[in-house]
Amino acid sequence: MTQWNKIELEHNINLESSIEGGQIFNWFKIADFYIILFSDWAIKIKSKNNFLFWQSYPKKDNIEKAVKFLNLEVLSTLEKYKSDMNIKKAIGAIGKLLLFRQNYEQATISFILSARQNIKNIRKQSLKLSSEYGAKIKIDENKFFLFPKIEVLAKQNETSLRNLKIGYKSSYIIHAAKMIHENCDNFKNLSLENKYCFIKTLKGVGNKIADCVSVFSLGDYSKVPIDVWAKRAIIKLYGAKEQQSYSYYQSYYRKIFPVESAYPAQYIFEFFRRFNNEK
User: What one-character DSSP code corresponds to residue 200?
Assistant: First the structure.
């Protein structure tokens, strides 16, 4: 039986939207809880009323990893935008969202997989990589595969990944894994902007993927990933012009949400994606 750690919050957290909305992809839902898998640990998590319940594996009660991943301090950002009517509607419709911080190596590989794919297929490919190259972990009575360590992926070849139905992105993943592994020590000492520039040197990484990695792993909330829903939402809800550049829409989000833009923007496009502004 799980011995849960418990965190009391001011508001109930919508874990379904937070986890299944495209921030992370290596997860399973079992009964009323989620298992989220990383390269060297996993977390079991559920939400009830105003409480988050969690436990870590294989090391139990790993507060350091859990606190960094859950990133609860970002919740206070919304206080700055409580007068925004669209933010109010979004919170009323979907509740409070978490903005996770995952390992940047895993985030980079996962978002390289994300190009031109829906969440279901990204997750399917991510879990394939894990079952082929990740270490086994036992959580309660269930066995799972952790996400592959970057040094393991760096040793693979394109053919082996193509056999997993990864397709043309196989070469991107191999290149990224080798570059990340070779530059691991140097990367830690770079500024946020230089980390962003390094990520953009990887094959298959453009503005959106680099922005996703920056937000969901590096904690750079000045970046706003722009996908079709983010674009539609800013046009419909805030009057942005149609058929403009990526940088135009990102700047528009920053103008509306000048502080930690990524977090309120997450509410806007998640709300618009789910409800298409019908409520």
Answer: H
pLDDT digits (tens, 9 = 90+) for 242-253: 999 999 999 999
Domains with residue ranges and CATH for the chain:
5-94 (3.30.310), 104-218 (1.10.340.30), 228-275 (no CATH)
Q: What is the mean pLDDT of residues 221-243?
A: 95
pLDDT (tens digit per residue) in 162-204: 999 999 999 999 999 999 999 999 999 999 999 999 999 999 9
CA–CA gap between residue 230 and residue 272 (Å, rounded): 8
Structure tokens at 65: 């990893």
Distance CA(64)–CA(81), nearest Å, equals: 29
Q: Count Cβ atoms below 10 Å from residue 79 Cβ, excluding itself.
A: 7
SS (H, E, C) 97-139: CCCCCCCHHHHHHHHHHHCCCCHHHHHHHHHHHHHHHCCEEEE
In this structure, the number of other CB atoms found within 10 A of the CB of residue 271 comes to 25
Say what the pLDDT of residue 109 is: 97
Cβ atoms within 10 Å of 171's Cβ, excluding its own: 16
CA 225/CA 231 separation, integer angstroms: 10
Separation between Cα atoms, residue 8 and residue 172, nearest integer Å? 42
Query: Model's pTM, two decimal places?
Result: 0.94
On whether the CB atoms of residues 50 and 11 are closer than 8 A, the answer is: yes
